[in-house]
Amino acid sequence: MTDKPKPSDPKIDLYEILLSAPDPGVTLKVLKSLASEKGDKTFLREEQIRSFALAIGGPIEDRTLSEAFTYLIEGGIITELGESGIYALKSPDLALEITLRTDRFEHGLGKVKAFIDYTYAEHLKRSFLLSENDLRHIKLFERGLYLEEEKKIFLEKSRKAVRRKNVKRKIEVVATSAVIVSLVFLSILIYNEKDRSSDAMNEARLSAQASVSDQEALAEQSRKALERAAVAEKQLEEAFSRENEAKQQAKLANQNYRNAVNQARMAREQKEETDRQRILAEEKQMAAEVQSEQAEKALVASTRHKMVSIAISLANKSILQRTQPLKNQLALEAYHLYNQNSEYPFESSVYNAFYYARKNVAGDYFNELTGHDGTRINQIDIINEEHYTLGDDGKLMIWERTAAGFSRREIDLRFIYYWEEGEMDIIASSIDSHNIQSLAANDQNTYLVSTGSKRFLQINQSTDEVYEIIVDDFEGQLIKIFPAVTGWHVISTSQFTHITATSPDQITSNTYPLERKALSAIRSENGYYLLGTDEVYDLDISTIQQTSVGLKIGSFPTNLSVAPDFAFMAVGYASGEVSLYDLNTKGQIEQLTGHTARISSLQFSEDMKRLVSGGYDRTLNIWDLEDFTREPIQFSDHDSFITALHYDQTNDLIMVGEVDGTLKYYNLDCDESIEQLCATVINPLSEKEWIRYVGENITYDPYSCSSSPF
Fold first, then answer.
1. Is 638 within 8 Å of 647 (Cβ atoms)?
2. In this structure, are residues 673 and 359 in contact, taking their beta carbons and an 8 Å threshold?
3. Could you say which of 47, 216, 469, 675 would form a disulfide bridge with 456 (CB–CB 3.0 to 4.6 Å)?
4. What phi and psi values does residue 592 have, to the nearest 5 degrees?
């Protein structure tokens, strides 16, 4: 029985739904009809779905269409309204997800179908068969391929060859293991026997040596005893001869000696007791000082912790407060108390109190930048100290920082400029559309812009030269452009391309296929780190070889970032988790959990103390890499998926782009917010307000804008 899809959810895995369906092709047509332009209505009749299916691929049999409806209804994807024959998506949010996922699914089916066609042609020429990895990848899409019979036979023949190879390998491993076990067992028996013989010989030798040594020791002791006896006898004779004359003197001397010994002993004991008492006193004093210091620190820490808790409480009250100027007063007081009592720059709720208070003063859209036409923001970067943004609308926007926020200008690339005999001429471009997909800039004020899958423009802003570059053998989906020592490096999902253009007549491009599909790319010490489906690879640009970095990453990675010193790497996943790795030890340092959906953007700060992440859960997180126990600073003021971000640490500013074209910036430096909020606050909190919002037992010491202790 076919597994049912999971209940309706905008983040449902549509690949699994299509692959588990009774007929993936028919199920795909039904989903596309309900999410297409014809699906703008609340519902569609069965006749409309049939017409749409006929338009995109041919008629559908009654039985297979009925099975598709039943499968999707039971799985909670669609619902049947009222009378029979009227259908609608169960969740309106599924429309965008279905459109994006089904297009990618069809694209994946096409690539797998083309791969099978190519390998089957090679099979006919050279009896070529597919490898185990090839069959594993094809299996994911096989139910939706609808292959010809001869190609099904080709796949089955490849599977049989792989199975025979695996069986042979297992037999060889078992035989080799048996031989090794036999040799090891025999070696252990020989070694144990030899060891027992050696132990017996050693015991006998040691026993003999001990006996000889004991006899020699007894003889030596006897000899020394005889010598001492002879000396004593001689001394005794001498003593007896002087006994009469020295008897009184010896008695007196002996008495004096005993007295001196007793006095010395008593003096030593008295000194030892004095020293012991002094040491005990010093230890008690030190213990008392340590306890006092610890108690003082604990009291200070407790007080600071209490004030931080009050600051966070004030921040939350400010966020909920609707009236002015109390909302701003609470935000300022929360920031003041937090900064006085915490070693960290700010906390999420404290910053959000500032943010929403300022939003209440300056308007809901004070930090939004308008310019992109409601389409996905693909790239945000800083080039020559200016912020650049790119979107699916093909527009390249340049944002210049001003006192009021940002000013905008748009790049116009309607013409091609070239130099001839010292003069510049202008011609119309042969490129139909100048929709910009990606760009990069070098230190010579020159840019490379991608305007299509095979088309690029090199622009020199100093001379106004623009070269049109068409790379005929460019394949795959463009990931990113990087400036190189000479020219440019362009990385797609399947290729690495080196482009140089020094004049209109001297344009070269060299493409190299990648060994594995790339999902994301970023610079490494040797060239570039490439994120694959199950591993991170280092692309050495000197040899164009991919080698595994050796990290154990999880399933469904989506994005990566590397620290400026190449010591650490962060990998984001479709689940919303972020893994932090040490590139020296190849081990995972921490698993960061704060998102609930796909990670779309990651960036380390320049000082490597923070990591910024954005995701499809509509949140932006800032992680403290020096203390993993701290919760991330989180910004949730987003209405759609976050698709791009850039952290400008020089200006302490984060710019964020969303899938609907919304562009926002967050100024992490709170001085500007303090100045604006103070303009709306005349008086600090009154004593009555202090008791109500701060606490009755807290000394009245409100923050005043005129004192500015920050």
1. no
2. no
3. 469
4. -90, 120
State the Cα–Cα distance between residues 486 and 474, nearest whole angstrom.
19
**What are the C-alpha distances in Å from 503 to residues 418, 422, 465?**
9, 12, 9
- Look at residue 38 in the predicted model and tell me its pLDDT: 44
CA 550 to the chain's CA centroid: 16
Q: Is residue 703 helix, strand or coil?
A: coil
Nearest to 536 by CA among 527, 520, 526, 544: 520
If you count them, how many residues does the chain have?
Answer: 710
Element (H, E) at 400: strand 396-402
Residues 66 and 87: their CA atoms lie apart, in Å, by: 12
Give which of 364, 358, 353, 302 is closest to 693, Cα–Cα: 353
Contact 27, 72 (CB under 8 A): yes
Q: How confident is the model over 285-297, as pLDDT tens digits?
A: 999 989 888 888 8
Q: Which residue has the tokens 């570059």?
A: 469
For the question of whether the overall pTM of this predicted structure is more than 0.90, the answer is no
**Closest-CA residue to 589 (of 627, 632, 619, 646):** 627
pLDDT in tens, 239-269: 667 777 767 786 787 888 888 888 888 988 8
Three-class SS state of 91: coil
First-to-last C-alpha distance (Å) of the chain: 68
Give the 3-state DSSP-derived string for 417-446, with helices as H, strands as E and coil as C. Answer: EEEECCEEEEEECCCCCCCCCEEEECCCCE
Phi, psi of 342, deg, nearest 5: -125, 145
Q: In what order do the strands lie in the sheet with 455-460?
A: 438-441, 446-450, 455-460, 465-470
What φ, ψ does residue 533 adopt, rounded to 5°?
A: -75, -20
d(CA 710, CA 703): 10
